Amino acid sequence: MSDVMISYSRKDTDFVRRLHQALSQQKREGWVDWEGIPLTADWWSEICHAIESADTFLFVISPDSLTSPVCHLEIDHARRHNKRLVPIVRRPSDPTEAFGVLAAIPADANTQARLGGRDLLAIARDNWNALSRHNWLTFDQDAEFTANFQKLITALDMDLDYIRQHTRLLMRAKEWETARRIGASLLRDEELAAAQQWLASSGGKDPGPSELHTQYIFESAQEQQRLEQAEREQQARELLFQKRAANRARYLAGVSALAAVVGIALSLFAFSQFTRAQDEADNRGTQERIAVNEAQSRGTQEQIAVAAAATADRRAIESQSLFLAGAAQELTDSGDSLGLTLALAAVEVEDPPGEAQRALADAAYPAGIAYEFPIHTITGNPSLDAAPTFLVEYSALSADGRWAAGKVYDRDLQQQKIMIWDVQRRTRHDIPIPAEVDGVVDVYFHPTDANQLALLTVSVLENNVRIYPVYIVDPATGIVQDMYYNDETVTYGVVWGNNGHLYLLEATDPTGPLRVWDATISRELVTVRTAPTLFFNVGFANPFALSADGERLAYIAEDETLRVVSTNLGVPVLEQPTSLRGVLLALNDDGSRLAIYTDNVVQVLDVASGSVLLNAAWPNQTIRSMTLDAAGRTLAMGAYNSGSSLPSLRVWDVDRGRELISSAASFDVQQVAITNDGQWVLTNSDQITRRNNLVLWAVRSADVVLDTQMEFSGALWRLKFSDDSQTLRVTNQAGAEGDPLSVDLDLATGEESSIILDVPIIETPDVWFSANGAYSVTSAPATVDYEITLTDAAGSTVATWPFSGNVAADFSTIFRPSEDGRWVAVGGCDEYINITTGECGRANVWLFEVGRETPQIWLSHTGSITAFAWSPDGEFLVSADTRMLLVVWDVATGQAMRYFRGHSNTTGPLNNQIVAMVVSPDGQSIASLEWYGRLIVWRVDTLSELIAWSRANRYVRDLTCNERLQYRIEPYCSADYVVPTSTPFAP
Does the N-terminal peptide bond of residue 207 adopt cis geometry, omega within 30 degrees of 0? Predict the structure, then answer.
């Protein structure tokens, strides 16, 4: 094996010799074909072996190498084996010119044989696309060779262990393939374990494993499982044989004894008849016992073998489930939608481990990227999956979330096209752009009729007057249904009205009057004078906005005042001074809420009162787009990132003033679109970045039923659900007037109703009650540490337990009995970081069961436990800690089934914590309350409900053929790369 295989043109030999020498001086082994041997079968086999056995394939780009059929065949072979590509530029080259020269070169017989009927020009284009996706190193200046060479060494050393394992496994796999895939060439034991670990860690790595890698590792695992099963069966057979041999020996000994008895009987003739009858009876009994013993022995051995096989099978199933759950968690943490697919696969076993169920909940529920719409077909065959260089420039999302549209520019063909995705079926089709159109400026969906798509375009009339016609097309067919334009104005924006009318925002020039034109009825609604210093940028969000009902227009007036006017009356409904720096405006559907971004601050205003509903800073960014959902409760904004660590997408919950999404990935957002209900956001970028495709984002976490701030004061809180689980009562300790105050929350609407209680609440700090008040727990010093006492409502002692946990630290130990009195949960700190401050490093849950002296111990938290809640049926327990983590435990197994994250210990003073929790009577909701008033009601799904919800409400990406092999997920693809599909995504 070598470190580097260098592919180059003979005209660059001098440079390659210098490069090879420099690599040798750095102890890097480079493979170079210096001989120029003709393209024979033996020579080609040697080249292929050199590519496969090298850690890195280095291609020297020059006009001559790009027109070399041999070079392109070498790149193609490297790509098909997923080798790491490092392109270096020796001489700048024009690919278009090179492809033209290549097309004119007749292919000789050897080249045709290597092509196997494939098109060389198509291979060259795919090669160029693959090279273009990597960072290039430039060696066109000899004086800078040393500095650039050091960059090359850095690139070669990156992730070196992974790359070397990639090469080693590929060579082993090639040997296996050459040996006609016989079992002797497969991996075993430690080698197999290391290969499986390498494969599991390959997600997101470049290069990824090839199809041969995954097949080889999978077949190795299958063969090892087969051998282990055969060994278990052989051991069972040997054990059974030994048992049968022992029984046979006992049987022969019995027969010998019987013969002696018969001999004695013959000598004692007087007793012959009696003795014979007795012996025959004994013999029959002996034979019957032998038969019974053998049957019992045979049954026992078979049961042992069956039990052993079942245990091994279960361990294999659990191991695969945990393997998939771990991969799913890692991918979910990195924002990859593949995480949800693997998480669902991890729970498709009987009684899946708790880790798998947690991985599914983590993948399904959090806000973030749900789906990246592909702009090319993924077959699963790496050699067929090179992406064309498309730029998604404008995008739109239908109000119901069914359709996504993107105006795409193909840089290779220098053509525009409109791509339409059916989100539910995950299919895509392209529609033609009208022939007379010079370009598409933006795309818009009808607000209620998803079968209408508006295209804002650019055209030139015969008298050379540029116009901006709006075409209405059917997104399913691309058939033009209607067209609107004015030849004296420029259209700067389009708004589909809720009444079905099409509104055009027009002006004679960027500094002229702004007119709202109802194109459906050909009527002007209002004309206003805008600030002459503002630049109206076609295709981007502008410093004006029109509500979806067409009745309110927001703009910056020429006197530098923010105004919202009624288009029917032409009179202002809101006026206030504003800055002109970076102005963006957005109105919700009825114009009752206005979002404004200016001077690095975003605000959402109530138009009627002018009051500020949301105020957030977003400095040092170029904001490109802003939108509100229909009700104005969700605000989404996109920014130009320019490779910085600052977020490029931010989404806020306006009513609660909380940020829902702050993207951490470095990519640009040109436009944002949002569904009417604010649950889904679509973004696109016009830059060639990691996310230049359309991206669909899930906005709200579906495990949160209600998230609100309670305006109480007091040190003690109580929570109680109504019997129908639809209302939650929150009660605090005596207020300023001395009377306890309660609030009833309707979980469906979030509406509050206040209640003054006549009876004061009395709590004893050293007594802990069950939620229904039927049982209580106390603790007191005993002979050995502490003693826990469980008492029923009548005051009778149900059980007592000695306990040696850290109950002496009363600030970190809590107790809670289950509602049926069968269990008592105790939470205490098992390992302190600072005993003075009570800072806990490791906290346990001790679970005591009536009738048992020894408790179950669950290691659960890294902070002191502050609250417990039991489900009414006692099947699960919820615990919360000072780090604001909620854990749902399955009592029967002791497994942590769910984690809930969302509370913050920094929302109030530093000692904020979860002080109260309760589970609803139907077991489907958990309410948790912070000391300083934030209340969250969480949705608790069963596993079957979680699976059903995930498949119905989240995008479940299909696995490629390579991924199915990599993660050992059946069914596998067919020979012609037909991929099994999963449940459609339906927002």
Answer: yes
Least confident of 224-233, 378-387, 755-764, 875-884: 378-387
pLDDT digits (tens, 9 = 90+) for 471-486: 898 888 888 888 887 8
| Residue that is written with structure tokens 């995930």 in the block | 950
Q: Is 623 left (phi over 0), alpha (psi -120 to 50) or beta?
A: beta
Q: Report the alpha-carbon angle 355-360-366, nearest 5.
A: 120
Q: Please count the residues of the chain.
A: 987
- What percentage of the chain reaches a pLDDT higher than 70? 77
Confidence of residue 379 (pLDDT cuts 50, 70, 90): very low
The DSSP H or E segment spanning 798 is strand 797-803
pLDDT digits (tens, 9 = 90+) for 134-186: 878 889 888 888 888 988 998 888 888 889 889 889 888 888 887 767 666 78
CB 3 within 8 A of CB 53: no
Cβ atoms of 459 and 470 within 8 Å: the answer is no
How many CB atoms are closer than 10 A to CB 34?
10
Helix (H), strand (E) at residue 113: helix 109-115
Show the 3-state SS of 246-312.
HHHHHHHHHHHHHHHHHHHHHHCHHHHHHHHHHHHHHHHHHHHHHHHHHHHHHHHHHHHHHHHHHHH
- Measuring CA to CA, which residue among 489, 518, 485 is closest to residue 506? 489
Report residue 249: phi and psi, to 5°.
-60, -40
Is beta strand 453-460 parallel, antiparallel or unpaired with respect to 470-473? antiparallel
- Whether 44 shows a pLDDT value over 80: the answer reads yes
Write the DSSP assignment of 927-944 as a string of letters.
EEEETTSEEEEEE---HH
Tokens of 474: 């059917």
The DSSP code sequence of 583-596 is -EEEE-TTSSEEEE
* Dihedrals phi, psi of 177, to nearest 5 degrees: -65, -40
- Edge-first strand listing for the sheet containing 584-587: 584-587, 593-598, 601-606, 612-617
For the chain, the average pLDDT equals: 78
Task: Please tell me the pTM assigned to this model.
Answer: 0.60
Query: Would you state the torsion angle of the CA atoms of residues 491, 496, 500, 506, taken in this order, to the nearest 10 degrees?
Result: -20
pLDDT at residue 874 in the model: 92
